[in-house]
From TrEMBL:
UniProt cofactor note: Binds 1 zinc ion per subunit.
EC number(s) from the headed UniProt entry: 6.1.1.7
Domain of life where this protein originates: Archaea
Signal sequence, start to end: none
Family: Belongs to the class-II aminoacyl-tRNA synthetase family.
Annotated Alanyl-transfer RNA synthetases family profile domain residues: 60-747
Designated name of the protein: Alanine--tRNA ligase
Record key words, sorted: Aminoacyl-tRNA synthetase, ATP-binding, Coiled coil, Cytoplasm, Ligase, Metal-binding, Nucleotide-binding, Protein biosynthesis, RNA-binding, tRNA-binding, Zinc
Residues the entry annotates as binding Zn(2+): H600, H604, C704, H708
SMART domains: tRNA_SAD
Cellular component aspect of the GO annotation: cytoplasm
Organism: Caldisphaera lagunensis (strain DSM 15908 / JCM 11604 / ANMR 0165 / IC-154)
Transmembrane segments: none
Length: 906
């Protein structure tokens, strides 16, 4: 715990207005107040909720609270900016937007680029899942989605905007003048904030037990426990929009204040009656002191409500547990709509994992409330409620609903297979937390399902109250930085050596059509060469490196690998460089480069077409461009249909025919983001103030390092060669462009020619011949089916007349055709029909005999042991287990002899 410096909190504002510094008698925190009587910091859990008794402006909705906040700060010189998506596309170390300051990390907070405005005001929808298990029971203290209204000021060494005094003054004026809260009931509690490698003192603004805002003064960098003062000092505030609505509406739960009539609609759809008002208001009083992860605290919470309302403990518990599930469904369905509305595709990795986590927890809650209610219908109500505030919900409604329906289906399939998957683990008699997490992570099986199955086997499974919070915490950020990087093939000593040189001048960006160049040699080391400028593209951004040759002192070397170390390009040649010349002449393999340019530009062309056909949720998940083909992996929740693939291909070729210009632009980051949005960062987020953008006019715009054409017409042609689902939520597209299209078509023609030879057809008649063969094959199959039907009737007669030994009917039949799969299918059918049957199928093959044996459920014979005895007696091999065995006898065998042998054994 950081030792707070009292001087950080002694503000001129407090002195001017007569605030006193006090110490909370419970939590021992220092706080500032105008109220002589306060002896606590007025924050939970030190104080129970009593803000319903505090006067304020009446009944602000969430929208009205947001607007009032933004207008107040706009009036006070702050520029309103648009909120960012809830998925942090501009961050490579974080999946979700968890606070407003995330909007400016790391590019603004590091000083790399200026903020979009200074000072500014924003209301940022944020998602935090670490407390997901607590949502509902605390009646609104915990939410997975909330709006963080914030005003930010960025103070540079040469330009101060405002700091602590002004920040606290703004908070005081907003709460007293705009929300009409009595000033003597406002408390500024001293605290300390740390996050994302930064730290600083802060004030938590509390009223009547409820924290309404946090005012952070980001002024330190945290480095190995040391606090290093930053040159850029940032005012980082966060006001709870939903809490302001709750505070002003004075409702017993935040959910009524946030969701209004939607809460009543949910109650009607789910048949959940509202608890008696006495229970709700007593829960309101006690909720601030409730520790939802502590079972004893939860028990005391119910006991207190019971004692003060006259309802029994069980009545209170039943009311509150059911309402908690209802509230969590309200919260989760809003979170789901925002996650999907901003383009997240549910999957087993990344932000998609977190979306699926929320969806499945909502579906689990739905199971416990009412069956046969669709989560999609509940989310649809959220879209109607919040669509005005977040237009992306309306724009992407069909995608959101379609995905939820798909996820509901997958969840049901998960539950069905969950019982089978967990049965083996349950045999061990114990299930640990790691087991529960493994089953959830690997198979999506909720712990409640495992616990239910375990109970049937008298196995006790302890599910932590915060199970889903544990899961969310483990997946809130990438284990490694999310960046598409190719693994360096350079030795470590060469990497270290390269870092000693100045930045390489990149000629391939200045003129991607140049084929040769001259440059100065800066350094050589064995087979490695560094130049002051180069035309050779280094591996990066999914594009492999150029190849070619260089001439040094009239000696020629083949360039076999090119890589970039920071901003220095390293060339690897085919042999050691012996000469010490100053100059070099280089030529790239132009045909190879041009194919790479076509495939790289084709990847951008494909991305634009995918968004048009599949939807705006499509996002790059991986890419590779080689001279042979292009590959693009994208987020999508199902395999595209044949019609969709044709339309994607048609649109791509249409844009080629339109000969659209391809602009190679350099823009400052803020202007680029404002113009193109965060779709810029398909292939990663460059840590530079200026971004290189490849813009296919009115089609696709991306930050990209690669080499590209200047007109879509140069792509020449576009053909998708393969589409496959490579993992849940990820679809792979492979394609060829330019001269690779006829080459690929030639391969297909060769296949058709080979097929024609096999079919014995003339060129152009392959299809008719294949159809004729299919008809012949169908006719033969029908004949086989009729023969089998007659033969199976004879088998039934054989079973009915079979000898019975120790209540077991025994028969062996000879199969006239060599079809093992049919034999096994027949055995399965017969042993299901006759519980007391032990039956074998004999299949003769040359001088060997294959025997398949099966038994009905009432036959208490271990066929694995039986097969070994038969194998030993008749010179064979094989095995089996339980009610099935398979063996090979190395000679032809008499069925009667085999039957008698088994009779004797029984």
């Amino acid at each position: 715990m950081v030792r707070l410096n009292p001087e950080d909190y002694r503000l001129e504002f407090f002195k001017e207005n007569g605030f006193q510094r006090k110490k909370c008698k419970i939590g021992k925190e220092d706080f500032w107040t105008l109220n002589q009587e306060f002896d606590t910091c007025q924050d939970a859990p030190d104080t129970e909720y009593w803000f319903d008794k505090i006067s304020s402006i009446n009944g602000l909705s969430v929208r009205e609270a947001r607007e009032k906040f933004i207008k107040f700060f706009e009036k006070n010189g702050h520029t309103p900016i648009k909120p960012r998506p809830v998925v942090a596309r501009w961050r490579e170390d974080l999946y979700l937007t968890i606070a407003s300051i995330v909007d400016f990390q790391p590019h603004v907070t590091s000083g790399l680029v200026p903020p979009p405005a200074n000072p500014l005001v924003v209301s940022q929808p944020s998602i935090r899942l670490e407390d997901i298990d607590n949502v509902g029971l605390t009646i609104g203290r915990h939410l997975t989605t909330f709006e963080m209204a914030a005003h930010h000021a960025f103070n540079y060494p040469d330009k101060k905007i405002y700091w602590k005094d002004e920040t606290v003054r703004y908070a005081y004026e907003f709460f007293t003048k705009e929300l009409k809260i009595p000033g003597d009931l406002l408390v500024f509690k001293e605290s300390w904030w740390e996050g994302g490698g930064n730290a600083g003192p802060c004030f938590e603004v509390t009223v009547g037990g409820l924290e309404l805002a946090t005012l952070v003064f980001m002024m330190y960098k945290v480095d190995n426990g040391n606090y290093i003062e930053l040159p850029l000092k940032i005012v980082d505030t966060g006001y709870g929009v939903e809490r302001m609505a709750w505070f002003t509406q004075k409702t017993p739960t935040a959910f009524k204040a946030i969701f209004g009539n939607i809460l009543d609609e949910y109650r009607k759809i789910l048949d959940v009656k509202e608890p008696p008002e006495k229970i709700l208001w007593e829960a309101f009083r006690a909720a601030g002191r409730l520790e939802p992860e502590n079972p004893e605290s939860v028990k005391e919470f119910y006991e207190r409500i019971s004692k003060n309302t006259g309802f029994t403990f069980d009545e209170v518990k039943n009311y509150m547990e059911l309402d908690a599930r209802l509230y969590s469904l309200l919260d989760h369905s809003r979170t789901i709509s925002l996650m999907l509305g901003d383009g997240i595709v549910p999957s087993n990795t990344g932000e998609g994992y977190l979306a699926r986590l929320v969806i499945r927890r909502a579906l689990k809650q739905l199971m416990f409330i009412k069956e046969n209610v669709s989560l999609a219908d509940l989310v649809d109500l959220q879209i109607k409620l919040w669509g005005v505030d977040f237009p992306q919900l309306i724009d992407n409604k069909s995608y959101i609903i379609d995905v939820i329906i798909d996820e509901e289906k997958k969840f049901k399939e998960t539950l069905n297979r969950g019982i089978k998957l967990t049965s083996k683990s349950l045999k061990s008699g114990t299930i640990s937390l790691d087991d529960l997490i493994k089953f959830y992570d690997s198979y999506g099986i909720p712990p409640e399902i495992i616990a239910s199955e375990a109970k049937k086997r008298n196995v006790n499974v302890e599910i932590p109250i915060n199970f889903y919070s544990i899961i969310a915490s483990r997946h809130k950020a990438p284990s490694t930085v999310r960046k598409i990087e190719e693994k360096s093939r350079l030795p470590e000593e060469i990497v270290s050596w390269a870092k000693t040189f100045k930045q390489t001048n990149l000629l391939f960006h200045q003129n991607p059509y140049a084929k040769s160049f001259t440059a100065k040699i800066l350094g050589t080391k064995g087979k490695y060469l560094i130049l002051d400028s180069t035309l050779f593209y280094p591996t990066g951004g999914g594009q492999i490196n150029d190849m070619g040759k260089v001439s040094i002192c009239d000696k020629e070397y083949k360039v076999v690998n090119v890589e970039k170390v920071d901003n220095v390009v390293v060339h690897e040649v085919d042999k050691e460089i012996e000469d010490n010349c100053e100059d070099v002449y280089g030529e790239i393999d132009w045909e190879r480069r041009y194919r790479l340019m076509r495939h790289h530009t084709g990847t951008h062309l494909l991305m634009g077409a995918l968004r048009k056909v599949l939807g705006d949720h499509v996002w790059q998940a991986g890419a590779e461009k080689t001279p042979e083909k292009g590959r693009l992996d994208v987020t999508h929740y199902k395999l595209p249909s044949k019609e969709e693939i044709k339309e994607i291909e048609r649109l791509a070729n249409k844009v080629i025919d339109e000969r659209r210009p391809i602009n190679h632009l350099y823009m400052n980051r803020t202007d680029a983001e404002n113009k193109y949005g965060f779709r810029l960062y398909q292939g990663g987020v460059p840590m530079t103030p200026t971004i290189r953008i490849i813009d296919i006019e009115n089609w696709d715009s991306e930050a990209c390092f690669g080499t590209h054409l200047t007109n879509t017409g140069e792509i020449g042609g576009f053909k998708i060669t393969n589409v496959e689902k490579i993992q849940d939520g990820i679809v792979r597209f492979e394609f060829v462009a330019g001269t690779r299209v006829p080459e690929e078509m030639e391969k297909e023609e060769n296949k058709i020619e080979e097929l024609g030879k096999i079919l014995g057809s003339k060129q152009g008649e392959e299809l008719q011949r294949a159809k004729a063969l299919m008809e012949e094959n169908e006719e033969l199959n029908n004949k086989i089916k009729s023969y089998r039907k007659i033969w199976e009737e004879e088998v039934e007669n054989s079973i009915n007349n079979a000898p019975i030994v120790k209540n077991v009917r025994i028969t062996f039949i000879k199969l006239l055709e060599n079809d093992i799969s049919y034999a096994r299918e027949l055995l399965k059918k017969l042993t299901s029909k006759y519980d007391d049957l032990l039956i074998g199928v004999i299949i003769e093959n040359d001088n060997k005999t294959q025997i398949e044996i099966a038994s009905g459920k009432n036959v208490k014979v271990e066929l694995g042991k039986l097969s070994k005895i038969i194998s030993n007696k008749f010179n064979g091999s094989g095995g089996g287990k339980g009610s099935y065995a398979s063996l090979i006898i190395n000679e032809k065998i008499n069925g009667e002899e085999l039957l008698n042998t088994i009779k004797d054994l029984l």
